[in-house]
## 1
Amino acid sequence: MNYKPVIGLEVHVELRTKSKMFCGCSADYFGQKPNTHTCPICLGLPGTLPVPNKKAIEWCVMVGQALNCNINNFSKFDRKNYFYPDLPKGYQISQYDQPFCTNGYVHLEGETNEHLPGEAKKRIRIRRVHMEEDTGKLIHQGDSTLIDFNRSGVPLVEIVTEPDFETSAEVVEYLKKLQQIVRYLGVSDADMEKGNMRLEPNISLRINDEGLRIKKRLPNYKVEVKNINSFRFVEKAIEYEIKRQDVMLKGGKTPAQETRGWDEDKQKTVTQRAKEEANDYRYFPEPDIPPIRISASQISSLKSQMPELPDAKLARFINEYNLSIYDAEILTREKIKADHFEKVIKEANKNSITPKQVANFIINEKFVNIKGKEFDWTSMSPVVMIKLYLSLNRKTSIDEKALERAVKNVIAENTKAVEDFKSGKETALMFLIGQTIRQFKGKIDVKKIIEMLKKVLQ
């Protein structure tokens, strides 16, 4: 009997609000001294009352809108009851049957990225996008476990898909796209090393019914792998689980419905606990928070505040700037780079340089300083970038002694920039290069300027 993977995803994204979800404590907890960003509310002390963070709710709705969800006009918070050391109240304030956002979708283009926006290979359905509070963090030291409650109460958006994935590659593509979307929105850094984005795949196998007269149905079990913090690890965990479950099913055993963790050292998933069902959490409405009503005008207002999203920007770059899918995809991966590219384009237009020429320059040129260290091209102003482009494409023979005199004059006249560069500021080098280029009206190879700067400064 052959089996086919059935994979769903739960992704938790921490929002970068200034304060926590239900209290006024700072949400900027990473790297801070343990238990210094706490108060009676996020410590769950008796008699305290939670007050919802309006900005967090608005950002949750914007995430839902970016994922093509329906935004519910009526929503509420619920208590999710379970006992675990990192949950000080003995319950988590979350959402159960009336979340803020439901029934969305994301399109996948496939690994080759040959599809134009709107020509998606597959649609992944989003079941829900809801708001909850994060838990504390357990720190294991030898035989002891310590708890840091700085993270407790930080706003957390949970994004739940339907079990529409069939391969680990599809999962990774979706996750990269989701990370890109929340970064474009500016609602989260989605830095997995800091725990801003945590991944939890649900994996099971069903009989491969292609060509068979068997009603397509979901398996009667699922295995959840909790709190994975990298794309590479989630791919490994899924591949391991597919193989493990395949062996069990072909041996006549049904895998246990359980929660497992990924052990990177052992390169395997390990049992953590039996997986709970919804009724195990004894959900009931949060009595201390009134239901939330969101009007149609509020929903419309939030949508109008959203920036241009990655797929729309990719399509526009292809159509407006006549770029290839490959070039446009590279330039729109990060919003800061896409925005800077468009600023450079405006400067390029003044010099009759096409967007395609600028794109080739950015993608193919290796930007290095006089120490040979690569730097981010977005640190250069559009004016300097175009001067750099012109200098590399309008090379002329310059006497080395004349170049040396020019470089020495620039260094002598800009001692502050020299000091800044020596202290590690890359933009200072760009300034010195720009000042030298100006003396030759842009008709000089920048690599020669860098070599001369290196010679004189050393």
## 2
Amino acid sequence: MIPERMDAGRRLVLLGATGTVGVQTLGLIERTAAPGIQVVALAAHRSGPALEGLAERHSAARRYLTADASQRAALLDLLRAGEYEVCLNAVVGAAGLPYSEAVLQAGRTLALANKESLVCAGAYLCELARQRGAAIVPVDSEHAAVHQCLEGRRPQDVRRVFLTASGGALRDLPLESLARVTSEQALAHPNWDMGPRITVDSATMMNKAFEIVEAVHLFGLAPEQVAVLLHRESVVHGMVEFQDGSVLAQMGPPDMAFPIHRALHWPGCAPAPLQGFRADLWRALHFAEPDSARYPALRLGWEAARRGGAAGAALNAADEAAVEAFLARRIAFPEIARLCAEALTAAPRSAIRSAADALEADRWAREFVAARLTPARR
């Protein structure tokens, strides 16, 4: 559902305010002097002093530290009450899912940077949005690009969508050296400034596996309609191929400010001091099929999308646990994809009818990975 344009008096709730996307969002609001954007509430997990500073700076009347159970409950009450127009959910991990559910229950616009929501419970959340007249506007660059390309188009007109991938920090390393990769190497992303988990997921390309699942739910696609291309420049963020063979691409510098700004003002198009076309960036664009030997995690996205139900939640939790183990130097880099594949194969084939169902699948997968971390793997 596309709501009426709300450029004036748009009240914003920002979750994950002290994280990478949250700080970028608040900085963008300041830089653009965003018309009509009123920050009414901010939330973070534990960064109390930082949150207080941001709340004072942006005159946010309410602020919540979600590590405190009572504040977490109060935040959910606020979201369900719906006294805002847009909630930008930039919480990291499956912990963001209950907040997405609450926003959609209120029939509000969910600007979604928490990809785990759709990976873990995409079918349920999209149906909830339909029932409540809510909207899900993606904030991650690839889905924001496809979302923009599809505006005004009919689902039956789409042949395929293409999600692009930089290939991550390890894209040029010899395959035989991946077993010796350090966390510092995996975290040195060539194009984007992101948090630790998503940066490692970019190196394994598990992030694209999750994006396949997201795209299937968000755009009503079959898994085989979603393709992934390596694109080192990170200039083309997404493409749609239509039934007549024509292709529409969304392009821009690799800067999260673009999808954030669009989500804050959607369905309008507010002015912003962001530079678009740059000849030096567009001089040469390269695309290639990803190497399955280098990126074995990628196939898990299509597999999880085909299975549906709890598969996405289990895969996401297994990856979060495996990445944590890698960053703690408990497992080697290739073990991330291996553990995730084992978890996906063993995952219960249960349906997801609520956030609680998805979190139960999440719990199962974390316990599965913990049990697989034998002394030899530790």
## 3
Amino acid sequence: MAVSRNLLTLAACTSLLVGIGAPVHAVDEPNPLDVIQSVAPEVLAAAADDPSAPAGGDDAVVVDAGDATAMLPDDPTDGVTLGADDGDTMSIGLPNASEADAAEAEAAGVVSYDNGDGSTTVPVVRDDASVQILTVIDGPEAPREYVYPLELPDGAALHLDEASGFVSILSSDGEFLGGVAPAWAKDAMGADVATHYEVVGTTLTQVVEHSAGVAYPVVADPWLGMALVQRVVWTSSMKTLQVYSTDFARVATNLARWAGWAEVQIKTPGTRENTTSMQDQYLCHFDAVRLRKPDKPSWNLDLGRPNVSWAKMLLSSCNP
């Protein structure tokens, strides 16, 4: 899948979606971006900031993060497409897509689809080509179930971890291909609204238990991703490998740890990093540092570190 690394600008999307300038919303409807900004500003802050819309194409937004891609459709019935550099792709259908309007440009990396049922779907593409598919729920008449049918690689399946709420997408061999972060929903006052996922076959449903007692609008989302490593950089001395994980990797299940190490190897020229010690340092960072220091920019793997037990490595915070 050949796409540009540039994510759409409002002007580019305007040329694709004929006649659209600034998004137009009815006076009595809340602007979905205003709602999201008030409830979950961190989501919009993470949107990819250099989007593109291929001339003459069917996609409103395309992101190429090097080893992963994301495409938002102009026509909501086409669904969102995620791809990995190994050729794996998956498509995620959007709620009530057959009744929804075509994409409206909202901001760089963000479009919206008015579902015509009291809800608006607002996908936000991040720099790591993961996608947060937000739903803005205007009032109690809106649906409580939002259905996302997935088209997965042959043999792949959805696995819901009831304890964490994370949904893993696993190959027939149990390899981690991608996943969906735990469900969340908040009302206009920032209060949590009860929500959960249900999985039947390859269909994911988010149930949002909103009612007249909550402050509308309500915002909810599934966050889907595939890539776990954005890039790797050897220090000038070539003694330390700096691994920059994706935002999505930092919320993923531990089932993703080995897939992350595989990405490190794919992205690292040569084989210097392919030692038991370097592998264990990465796994230690994924298991511990990822949770203890979620904002740590890079996980540093030291080439000269001797091979020790995982327990000793953990006690030393994964590095000497």
